[in-house]
Amino acid sequence: MSRLTHDRYCDEITARTEALRATIRGADLGATVPTCPDWTLRELALHVGRAHRWVGEILRTRATEMVPFEQVPENAPRSDDPAALDAWLEEGAARTAEALRAAGPDEEVWSWAWEPSTGFWARRMAHETIVHHADAALTAKTGYEVAPEPAADTIEEWLEIVAFVRSVGDKRAAELTGAGRSIHLHATDVPGAEWLIEFGEDGFTWRHAHEKATVALRGPLTDIMLVFNRRLAPDSDRVEVLGDAELLDFWLEHAVFG
Question: Which residues form the MDMPI C-terminal domain (predicted)?
């Protein structure tokens, strides 16, 4: 499955933020987010809005070096007024998507990763918002769905991120080795949405394939994506794990960022 277009990533930023806003509207903003237990639902929403504004500042200034978070004018709502938080989230997403559309995908700007471009940030902010919408939905106990294309690309981007952090010396990701072991991700509802992650002595690689592996994770694509992002437990009855479940647990423990 291929990457999405730049415009589609921009669409996902605003659409997912709208879905996040709908999820938290009327919810207990003081509730602890089970998948990010250091945050309340309000703090999760503030994190998303601040991320959008930080990237927006990188785009606005065409920064070639990291922009310190404290230099970003965020105007976060200081009260607990849900309406103020809702409007603030909407504004931040809209402005960032607008800046991304105006820049296009090929402008060179600073990023923390392998691709210093506006296109990198469009993709990153789309998936950042997709995954944190899942956090909000789990907290508020509401439904959650993602279209097949962005769900698959969220998995693909996460593989790229883990490979990158391993390449720059992350100690946990450095342990993702071991020749002869493999993980098969198999979405049962989307043809072709399959990944084979193969471990070697020098790390891991992945490709799209339907092959026998040391462990297989099977289920709907959205649920596969949620497990892979540690938003759904692999022992959930929504997915099926076949083979060496400890290898999947090992991956989920070591495939981290930040």
Answer: 149-249
